[in-house]
UniProtKB/TrEMBL annotation:
Molecular function as annotated in GO: DNA binding
GO BP terms: regulation of DNA-templated transcription
PANTHER family: HTH-TYPE TRANSCRIPTIONAL REGULATOR TRMBL2
Recorded superkingdom: Bacteria
Stated name of the protein: HTH luxR-type domain-containing protein
Organism: Streptomyces albiflavescens
Record-linked Pfam families: HTH_23
Domain HTH luxR-type: 285-350
Length: 357
């Protein structure tokens, strides 16, 4: 820890803040406590060593060491490259960028929780309305409970589709039995002229059976691309109906059919946006020197937002163990000691946009 390094640091002097004064907390809006702000400013203004900071701010040694450890975790303070026994406080320009990045990360995490709450509320409303009005089959939003009901409804929609079928296929490598069962239907749809486009996760590229199936689809006339992550399972029929899994983590639990023109337009725009950023199936996915693959960049973004290995694995379509290995590799590559610090360093090094949510 930084505190151990500070033991050997010499007591330094001087500064623009009176000894014993704790800063008023101008950086509180950026999440920096007054104590941490005062210690950071003391280092910026030339105070050296634990003893020097203790004397300047009239604080116990244990309190100062704790503050230095916290500042180190935030990447605001580190051992000097010129002298390992001295501390270096990053410049205010860099420090403020780090604090703002932390605030963005916290806001993004809160937004994610809000979206999850909204989705849960929507599922409850749809479920309640469905039980209250069982005869509303022509409703613009229709809820289907259970895998049997979903399959029966998909059979009807597959028979009705005439021009276009667009699919988000998350979950990573597909089950062999599901791929075998889908082939006759895919051949039938393509045979009658339905244009099909499917987006899988990049993780299928490491699964031979799924890649074989995807190549078979392209040979039949379906267009296939991949992306690092997908928001949910979704199928769009002729830009008239959209089927969405009601629970992205359990697609067999239920589904929602949307037929409202406005909602269908929005969801179709989402598909087209993802499609434009997706990689064609035959495109090689090798990162250049110092670059990250799309999957690694997405894992880093999720890592910076505080997602667990299990959550990252689900988004990428890999096992939690593989997600843990990817996260550990990225943190080692960046020299980060925490997930938040990995996000900060990634922004500073240009791996993530500073304004990304």
């Amino acid at each position: 820890m930084i505190g151990r390094v500070c033991l050997e640091m010499r007591r330094g002097g001087g500064g623009m803040v009176d000894a014993g004064a704790i800063h008023s907390g101008a950086l509180g809006s950026l999440g920096l406590e007054p104590l941490l702000e005062s210690v950071y400013i003391a280092l910026l203004e030339g105070t050296n060593g634990v003893a020097g900071i203790c004397g300047r701010l009239d604080l116990p040694e244990q309190v100062v060491r704790g503050a230095l450890d916290r500042l180190s975790e935030l990447a605001l303070v580190r051992p000097s490259a010129d002298s390992p026994h001295r501390l270096y406080a990053v410049s205010p320009h860099v420090g403020m960028e780090i604090l703002i990045a932390q605030q963005r990360s916290e806001v993004a995490a809160q937004q994610q929780r809000l979206e999850s709450a909204q989705a849960a509320a929507a599922r409850f409303i749809l479920d309640y309305d469905g039980r209250q009005a069982p005869g509303s089959s022509e409703a613009e939003v229709k809820y289907l409970a259970g895998l049997d009901a979903i399959r029966d409804h998909l059979t009807v929609l597959n028979e009705q589709v005439a021009e276009e079928l667009l699919t988000f296929a998350p979950g990573g490598p597909q089950k062999p039995e599901n791929m075998r069962a889908s082939r006759p239907l895919n051949q039938q749809l393509l045979g009658r002229g339905v244009q099909m486009r499917t987006i899988y996760l990049d993780s299928i590229r490491h699964d031979r059976p799924t890649m074989d199936h995807a190549h078979w689809l392209t040979e039949q006339g379906c267009e296939v691309r991949t992306v690092p992550s997908l928001p949910n399972r979704m199928i769009i029929y002729d830009r008239k109906f959209v089927m969405i899994a009601s629970n992205a983590d359990d697609t067999a639990a239920g589904a929602v059919q949307v037929s409202s023109p406005g909602m269908v337009t929005v969801l179709h725009s989402l598909f087209e946006s993802v499609w434009q950023s997706a990689e064609p199936l035959k495109a090689p996915q090798h990162a250049g020197p110092g670059e990250l693959t799309g999957q690694q960049a997405e894992a880093l973004r999720l890592l910076a937002l505080g997602h667990t290995d299990e959550a990252i694995g689900k988004r990428l379509g890999v096992s939690p163990r593989t997600a843990r290995r990817i996260a550990s590799s990225l943190m080692a590559h960046l020299g980060a000691r925490s997930r938040f610090q990995a996000g900060v360093i990634a922004i500073q090094q240009g791996f993530l946009p500073s304004g990304a949510d």
